Amino acid sequence: MSAAFAASAVANLKQSPVLWLRSLVLPAAILSLFQIGFLARMTRSAMLDVLGQDYVRTARAKGLGEWKTVSKHAFRNALILIVTAIGILLSTAIGGSVVIEQVFALPGVGRLVVQGILARDYPLV
């Protein structure tokens, strides 16, 4: 796909940093909206699960403050599921970047993968 048929093209950073940043807002928003929602649901689910555990109730019963209980005990244990979800979302982001870079005519890893596939450069892919 040539840049003439693309939805937009990235501006040059050295010429206009503000225009460059504005040209990246829409692709970044499209690529991250699903992932932010999914990660927020996973974080909420993990925190609700961990907050019902016995060690959190024990920390509260000992008189530990709510902020310290949530940050030290609950969130650290909920991070296991959150980091796992981030790993899964990272693969989705790489796959989605192929489409986003083609639609918005952005240079990047996604475009490099598409060029490698078209040129049958299997080691690159």
Describe this structure in words.
This protein has helices at 17-51, 54-61, 66-103, 109-118. The protein is mostly helical and 125 residues long. It has one domain (3-118). It is elongated and about 65 Å long.
Mean pLDDT: 85
Helix and strand content put the structural class at mainly alpha
3D shape = elongated
Largest sheet data = none
Proportion of beta-strand residues: under 5%
Number of DSSP E strands: 0
Instruction: State Rg.
Output: 21 Å
Overall structural domain count: 1
| Number of distinct helices | 4
Output the helix-strand order. Answer: HHHH
Low-confidence stretches: 1-6
* Helical proportion, percent range: over 70%
Termini, distance in Å? 19 Å
Any chance you could write out the topology, listing elements then pairs?
Blueprint: H1 17-51, H2 54-61, H3 66-103, H4 109-118
Features:
125 residues, mainly alpha, 73% helix, disordered N terminus
Quick summary of this structure?
With about 120 residues, the protein is an all-alpha fold. It has four helices and no strands. Residues about 1-5 have low confidence and may be disordered.
